[in-house]
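DM from R.C. (forwarded with permission)

"hey, sorry to bug you on a friday — could you get me a structure for this? deadline for the figure draft is monday and I only need the backbone to look sensible"
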Amino acid sequence: MKFILKLILNAVAVLVLAEILPGAAVSNYLSALIVAIVLAILNAIVKPILVILTLPVTIVTLGLFLLVINAAIILLADYFITGFSVRGWFWALIFSVLLSVFQSILHSILAKDKS
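My reply, with the result:
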């Protein structure tokens, strides 16, 4: 149940970011939910592989290369989902950073409500 609630909160965050950022667009609510699901799958499967493959670069850049990996994950989601679009690397980077901030805020609110 908690996983479904987190997916819904992530879909809401995707919708809010698509309204705020001019470089990102989501066509409808169902597309936002699909984006949340695909991002969860990509973060669970593809991101660990990319982190391991780029570990030397990540260490040299003191972890900042992880932002590039997050942007690549957003662009992969853009490629797979027709109702979601991001204009380029810059907007994907901004989208990923703001999505992380929104997820952190929403999940901390969720954790406070549980206790």
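R.C.: lifesaver. The CA atoms of residues 54 and 93 lie 17 Å apart.
me: no worries. The helical segments are 2-20, 29-53, 55-60, 65-80, 89-114.
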